[in-house]
Amino acid sequence: SALTEVHERGGVDWLMGLRERSLSEARMELCSLAGVGPKVASCVCLMSLDKHDAVPIDTHIHQVAIKFYKQPKRSLTPALHDQLEKFFQELHGDYAGWAQLYLFYSNVTNKGSHAAAVNPAKAVAEKSSVKETNNKENNGRKSKAKENNERMGKRRKSGR
Questions:
Q1: How far apart are CA 140 and CA 138, in angstroms?
Q2: Residue range 107-118: average pLDDT?
Q3: Average of per-residue pLDDT across 84-101
Q4: Would you say 81 and 39 are in contact if contact means Cβ atoms under 8 Å apart?
Q5: Rounded Cα gap, residues 52 and 45, in angstroms
Q6: What is d(CA 89, CA 65) in angstroms, rounded to the nearest whole number?
Q7: Residue 110: phi, psi to the nearest 5?
Q8: Which one of 19, 87, 90, 149 has the largest count of C-beta atoms within 10 Å of its C-beta?
Q9: Is residue 149 pLDDT above 80, yes or no?
Q10: Rounded to whole angstroms, how far apart are CA atoms 12 and 158?
C-alpha cells in the first residue's frame, strides 16, 4: 500500500523532504506510490507540501476548462492534466491551486458563473465581503439580544 511505501522511504521525513523539491519532482515521487495518480499527488502538493501552484485536475476542473475557457474536450490523461495545470498556472499565477479550489466548489455546487471562473480571486473577495457584512449584522443583532436579556434579567431580579 501507499502507506507502507511511505514508511519504507522514510515516513514523515521523506514526505516533508518533498517540500524542498520542485512541484514536478514532488508530484513524480508521489505518483510512484501505489494508487497515487496526478490528481491526488497534486492535492498533497497543494495542501500539505506548500506547492501553491499545484492544480489538481479532475473531471470537474476539466469541465470548467471546457465550458469557460474553451479548452479542447478530450479524455483526461496525465498529459492533459499537465497541460491544464500549466494553463491555470499561467492564468492565475503562483496561487493557481487555491483558485482551482474555488472553481471546483463552484462547479460541484452548481453555483459556478463565468465571472467566478474568469477571476476566482475576485469572486472569493466579493463573497468574503458579503460574509463580513453579514457577520457585522449578526453581531449587531447578538448585541441587541444580549442587551435585552440583561434588561429582562434586571427586571426579574427587581420583581417586575
A1: 5
A2: 63
A3: 92
A4: yes
A5: 8
A6: 13
A7: 60, 30
A8: 87
A9: no
A10: 63
Asked if 127 is an active-site residue, the reply is no
Asked if residues 43 and 56 have their Cβ atoms less than 8 Å apart, the reply is yes
Catalytic residue from among 39, 86, 111, 142: 39
Mean pLDDT of 15-32: 96
Of 85, 94, 50, which is closest to residue 65 (Cα–Cα)?
85
Cell for 150? 440583561
Q: In the numeric block, which cell numbers belong to residue 86?
A: 500549466
* DSSP state for residue 94 in the 8-state scheme: G
Report pLDDT digits (tens) over 24-74: 999 999 999 999 999 999 999 999 999 999 999 999 899 989 988 888 899
pTM of this structure: 0.67
Please tell me the total number of residues recorded for the chain in this structure. Answer: 160
**Rounded-to-integer distance, Cα 143 and Cα 15, Å:** 48
Sorting pLDDT into bands at 50, 70 and 90, what band is 23? very high
